[in-house]
């Protein structure tokens, strides 16, 4: 049975009875027996009675014998041991009879044999232990094939089949032996999964589990090896060394032995930062003519990279002589290196085409593309056809051309084709020949062609090409500047060649000087010119071939920044219906000026976008037309962000005070789809708000930040949000718009707070509350004081926090903003908690939770549960606290609030420590540390490290604890936090 079959067996359900004349119903599904948890018999969705504990002991013993019979004596010893009661044998027979009755007429059968019994499973019956063994076999096979990701997933499936303690509640000496063996099997399985996880690069994700396992099994040296390796690969060398020290001390204290050689060797390799410890880096002619044309252009001497493309195209060309002619069509923007690649591949494949190679530049990008009839005449002459024999018409020439190529092995390279119509007559008609075609157009209508979309170079390839032209020494000396240069070139080969040629011709220039010249986006295209090579001229050729409607679409799309643009956003930008916009955008994709990043999403190469923007400034007149397009795009983003906000925060009055929109916004079937949109569009939404923060669209830009505030708490977009808020705030101050300034200010303060810059957050929120009109704007008034209260709470200034929360509550209540009021109550609960007023802390959090529940809120409900969980932890109601924090974690996970996911794991670690569960506390803290590694700021990370140190110390790992406290001390000192003093004391005490 395979792993997949095992999964299917767990979910089979009987099929409904079919009507007359229908095919016979499938056979009833088999039974599923479980021993990796409670001993049960599943019949589809129902469970058959397994009887008393001793009866389950009989069932378990027979199942684990895998069909082999057991004598009555063996069964008596297994269930009761040497002290079996006098009536044990008849009782055993009674149990056997009951099991037969429970199994009924199913395929699984309990049979009498050899004076005892055997349980024989039918072909459709399954045992969870058997499923595990099948999955492990598949995992081991995947590991042998170096498919670490698949192996890790399979091991994970196997682990998930354990449902608690094996043979749970089953008595008897045999059950004890089996239980010990199965528990050891699970531990070995988890060890194997963690080992393959490190091979798959999942070191950061494995640390928390390894920490918990080594705490629970301190003498298991392989687990400690894996923990040390995982910590080292996470950049936590000191903790890896401390883990060794803890393990060595435990082995000496408990067993009086030194660690085994492998563990000691790993310790030494970590000490010396052995590079080998780094993660593994995740081919008879129809005419008497004998002419053999050799028309290929010279290959460039500095051809670089493209190895996968070279192999792919080479393999296609190597298929000549089959049943179908090989045709490959390369498409891509101007300057991406289509011709260079095609010529390189053609030269490499010359041995496959001993009868010659034909070449033609079809000039498809020019105003006068090559006439296929004229090209055919040139090809015929090259193939040896006398001038007098060349027909006049295109079709006659094409027929003669194909006749001359019959049974010959010739490669035809058709460069710079305009479209498929220009190419068709020039293709050979025999399978012994092949054709390579390059074009800016994707030749989806060229039947049988192998289509290849050529993208820009990888950063490594770009640097290699740059170094070949400039010189390796200059690049080595200024590698960072060289990377900035090729990045400014958008990794486009033509741009890199031009930039490198300019630098090679100017020996007095540094690479940094060139990088600085290219850093100015408005001058970049002008800088990328050398002799008769110019990136702008290359793009201009493609732009000149577009229709008027395509040109307008192209240049307006250049106004939208971000990684890519959705169809609906582009339609709003263009002021068109989505269907009409999609037709134009897809036509631009076919020209290679626009890429289709995914269905319904479009993007431009960075240099193409700069060119499109320049075209907009030159051709989109009057200038107000550009501003109107950007305004339409912002209107769309604000309208849709407001819909997301409304789904996340039902009843929040903030929306009533935001700028009205003309666009209705997208409608989402559920909150998850709304969040998908917000996080997918985050970069484009924020960039558009920043660009539009002026004039009549200033207020809409500010309100877009308010509507999209969830982006700050996700962590992933905190920096982008912060930069946008800074720009919008500056624009609001320049405009003298006090309302816009207040709203931008609370957005920036909130952003500062979420990344852990408490001083900056306090300064910004204080600036907002000092504005004369702060109290008159319902959006600003409550939120500014709420933020100031949280900041005061972080600083343990409880009096100030309570004062600001009073003002926040008054503002929210005056506006009828229920969610705002509930938020302030949650925060007030934390103030009371800090003051030791535990009863009121719990009641306030419960009041906030009930308010959110009444409003139907989901995301904010998690915030209230978080506050309640903290209060219950302090009050000693640990079971309730665990339930609330677990629910909060689920809510934050559903709403993709990464910072709050990490902080909830931190609170769970606090709870585990309060419950005197140090191993579980350390594991939760490790998970929090992993989640908060790149989000939430250094202050929050320091808090987690401090707690992790305490949990490790509690679990007998003082060396690792001291390393964690030392890391926390460094972060606290860098942030200027008072907690540094306590960390210094702990580190100093641990060193004595």
TrEMBL record:
Q: SMART domains, from UniProt?
A: BTAD, TPR, Trans_reg_C
**Record-annotated OmpR/PhoB-type domain positions:** 23-121
Among InterPro entries, the record links this protein to: AfsR-DnrI-RedD_regulator, BTAD, NB-ARC, OmpR/PhoB-type_DNA-bd, P-loop_NTPase, Sig_transdc_resp-reg_C-effctor, TPR-like_helical_dom_sf, TPR_rpt
Keyword Transport found: no
List the stretches of this chain annotated as a DNA-binding region.
23-121
Extract the SUPFAM superfamilies matched here: C-terminal effector domain of the bipartite response regulators, P-loop containing nucleoside triphosphate hydrolases, TPR-like
Ranges for the region named Disordered are 1-29
Sorted keywords for this record are: DNA-binding, Transcription, Transcription regulation, Two-component regulatory system
The keyword Chloroplast is assigned to this record: no
- Similarity section: Belongs to the AfsR/DnrI/RedD regulatory family.
PANTHER family (UniProt xref) = TRANSCRIPTIONAL REGULATOR REDD, TRANSCRIPTIONAL REGULATOR REDD-RELATED
Q: What's the name of the protein?
A: Tetratricopeptide repeat protein
Biological source species: Streptomyces spiramenti
């Amino acid at each position: 049975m395979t792993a997949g079959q095992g999964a299917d067996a767990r979910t089979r359900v009987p099929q409904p009875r079919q009507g007359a004349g229908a095919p016979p119903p499938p056979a009833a599904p088999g039974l599923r027996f479980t021993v990796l948890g409670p001993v049960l018999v599943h019949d589809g969705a129902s469970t058959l009675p397994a009887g008393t504990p001793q009866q389950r002991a009989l069932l378990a013993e027979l199942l684990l014998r895998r069909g082999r019979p057991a004598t009555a004596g063996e069964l008596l010893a297994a269930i009761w041991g040497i002290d079996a009661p006098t009536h044990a044998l008849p009782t055993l027979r009674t149990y056997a009879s009951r099991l037969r009755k429970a199994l009924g007429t199913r395929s699984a059968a309990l049979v009498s044999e050899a004076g005892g019994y055997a349980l024989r499973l039918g072909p459709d019956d399954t045992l969870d232990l058997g499923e595990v063994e099948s999955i492990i076999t598949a995992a081991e096979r995947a590991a042998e094939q170096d498919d670490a990701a698949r192996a890790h997933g399979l091991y994970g499936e196997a682990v998930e089949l354990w449902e608690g303690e094996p043979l749970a509640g089953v008595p008897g000496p045999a059950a004890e032996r089996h239980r010990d063996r199965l528990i050891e099997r699970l531990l070995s399985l988890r060890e194997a999964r963690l080992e393959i996880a490190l091979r798959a690069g999942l070191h950061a994700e494995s640390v928390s589990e390894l920490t918990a396992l080594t705490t629970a099994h301190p003498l298991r040296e392989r687990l400690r090896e894996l923990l040390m390796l995982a910590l080292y690969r996470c950049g936590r060398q000191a903790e890896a060394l401390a883990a060794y020290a803890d393990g060595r001390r435990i082995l000496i204290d408990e067993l009086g032995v030194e660690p085994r050689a492998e563990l000691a060797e790993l310790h030494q390799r970590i000490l010396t930062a052995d590079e080998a410890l780094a993660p593994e880096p995740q081919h008879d002619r129809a005419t008497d003519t004998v002419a053999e044309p050799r028309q290929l252009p010279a290959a460039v001497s500095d051809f670089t990279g493209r190895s996968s493309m070279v192999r792919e195209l080479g393999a296609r060309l190597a298929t000549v002589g089959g049943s179908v002619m090989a045709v490959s069509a390369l498409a891509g923007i101007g300057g991406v290196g289509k011709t260079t690649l095609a010529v390189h591949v053609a030269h490499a494949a010359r041995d496959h085409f001993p009868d010659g190679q034909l070449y033609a530049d079809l000039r498809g990008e020019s105003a006068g593309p090559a006439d296929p009839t004229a090209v055919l005449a040139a090809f015929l002459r090259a193939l040896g056809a006398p001038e007098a024999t060349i027909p006049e018409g295109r079709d006659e020439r094409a027929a003669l051309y194909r006749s001359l190529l019959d049974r010959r092995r010739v490669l035809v390279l058709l460069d710079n084709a305009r479209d498929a119509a220009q190419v068709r007559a020039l293709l050979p008609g025999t399978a012994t020949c092949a054709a390579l075609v390059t074009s800016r157009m994707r030749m989806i209508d060229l039947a049988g062609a192998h289509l290849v979309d050529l993208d820009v170079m990888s950063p490594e390839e770009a640097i290699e090409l740059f170094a070949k032209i400039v010189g390796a020494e200059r690049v080595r000396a200024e590698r960072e500047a060289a990377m900035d240069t090729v990045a400014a070139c958008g990794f486009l080969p033509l741009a890199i060649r031009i930039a490198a040629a300019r630098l090679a011709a100017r020996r007095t220039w540094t690479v940094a000087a060139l990088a600085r010249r290219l850093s100015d986006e408005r001058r970049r295209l002008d800088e990328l010119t050398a002799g008769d090579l110019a990136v702008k001229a290359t793009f201009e050729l493609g732009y000149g071939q577009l229709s008027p409607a395509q040109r307008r679409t192209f240049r307006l799309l250049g106004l939208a920044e971000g990684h890519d643009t959705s169809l609906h956003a582009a339609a709003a930008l263009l002021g068109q219906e989505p269907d009409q916009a999609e037709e134009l955008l897809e036509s631009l994709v076919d020209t290679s000026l626009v890429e289709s990043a995914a269905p319904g999403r479009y993007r431009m190469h960075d240099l193409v976008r700069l060119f499109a923007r320049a075209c907009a400034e030159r051709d989109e007149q009057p200038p107000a037309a550009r501003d109107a397009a950007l305004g339409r795009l912002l209107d769309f983003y604000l309208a849709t962000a407001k819909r997301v906000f409304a789904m996340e925060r039902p009843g929040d009055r903030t929306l009533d005070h935001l700028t009205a929109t003309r666009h209705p916004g997208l409608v989402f079937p559920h909150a998850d789809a709304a969040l998908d949109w917000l996080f997918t569009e985050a970069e484009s939404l924020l960039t558009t708000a920043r660009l539009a923060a002026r004039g009549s669209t200033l207020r809409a830009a500010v309100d877009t930040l308010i509507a999209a505030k969830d982006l700050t708490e996700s962590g992933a977009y905190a920096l982008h949000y912060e930069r946008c808020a800074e720009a919008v705030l500056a624009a609001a101050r320049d405009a003298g718009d006090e309302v816009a300034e207040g709203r931008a200010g609370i957005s920036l303060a909130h952003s500062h707070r979420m990344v852990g810059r408490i001083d900056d957050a306090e300064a910004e929120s204080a600036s907002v509350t000092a504005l004369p009109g702060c109290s008159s704007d319902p959006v600003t008034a409550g939120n500014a004081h709420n933020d100031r209260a949280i900041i005061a709470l972080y600083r343990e200034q409880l009096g100030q926090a309570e004062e600001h929360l009073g003002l926040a509550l008054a503002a929210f209540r005056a506006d009828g903003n229920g969610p705002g009021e509930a938020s302030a109550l949650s925060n007030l609960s934390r103030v009371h908690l800090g003051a030791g007023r535990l009863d009121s802390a719990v009641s306030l959090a419960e009041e906030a939770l009930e308010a959110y529940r009444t409003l139907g809120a989901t995301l904010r409900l998690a915030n209230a549960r978080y506050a309640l969980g903290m209060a219950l932890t302090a009050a000693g109601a640990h079971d309730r606290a665990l339930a609330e924090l677990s629910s909060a974690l689920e809510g934050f996970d559903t709403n993709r609030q990464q910072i709050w996911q990490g902080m909830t794991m931190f609170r769970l670690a606090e709870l585990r420590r309060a419950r005197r569960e140090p191993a579980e506390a350390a594991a939760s803290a490790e998970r929090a540390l992993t989640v908060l590694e790149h989000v939430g700021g250094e202050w929050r990370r320091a808090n987690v490290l401090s707690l992790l140190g305490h949990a490790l110390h509690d679990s007998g790992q003082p060396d690792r604890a001291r390393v964690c406290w030392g890391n926390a001390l460094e972060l606290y000192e860098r942030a200027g936090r008072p907690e540094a003093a306590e960390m210094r004391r702990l580190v100093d005490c641990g060193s004595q």
